[in-house]
Specification:
two-stranded parallel sheet, two-stranded antiparallel sheet, 7 helices, mainly alpha, 6 strands, single chain, globular
């Protein structure tokens, strides 16, 4: 869901996980030179130099329509096409339904999600427990629109 920071007004309709309108975005990024280079470099590092789980995960990365990231990219494109001002994005908050519920129930004081919801986004680094700066940069996702990630226990 994508809302305005101070009014909690929604920018666009909620997109379900089964939505296939982001297939073109997924195909574009999965065939992009930089994503292919990143996954191949990670595979090489994992298999020959540093057998780290982090490199193994990166080597298998593929954007899918079930990830949150292509839907977020689509929504950001729609919003940016409707607004010429870059400052407009500073008023955007993006999160899943749990994020909205926390934000609503805390009377807009807490904008957060848990690790399980964040990890389903496709751009959360599960090894460092934070949003991946590399993937946010590659997908042009401003990190300030994302919720804080908290333990769910």
């Amino acid at each position: 869901m994508m809302n305005k920071r101070y009014t909690n007004e929604k920018f666009c309709n909620f997109i379900l996980w089964s939505d296939r309108r982001t297939t073109d975005i997924c195909n574009y990024y999965n065939n992009a030179f930089y994503l292919n280079s990143l996954t191949k470099m990670a595979k090489l590092l994992y298999s020959s130099v540093i057998p780290s789980h982090h490199f193994l995960a990166i080597s298998k990365y593929k954007m899918e329509t079930t990830h949150v990231s292509p839907r977020l990219i689509q929504q950001l494109r729609i919003i940016q096409s409707q607004s010429a001002a870059r400052n407009f994005l500073k008023s955007v908050l993006y999160g899943t339904i749990d994020t909205w519920l926390i934000y609503y129930l805390t009377k807009e004081k807490t904008f957060a999600t848990d690790i399980t919801c964040a990890s389903s986004s496709g751009f959360f680094d599960i090894f460092q427990d934070k949003w991946s700066k590399i993937l946010c940069y590659l997908f042009s996702i401003p990190s300030y629109i994302l919720p804080d990630v908290e333990d769910s226990w």
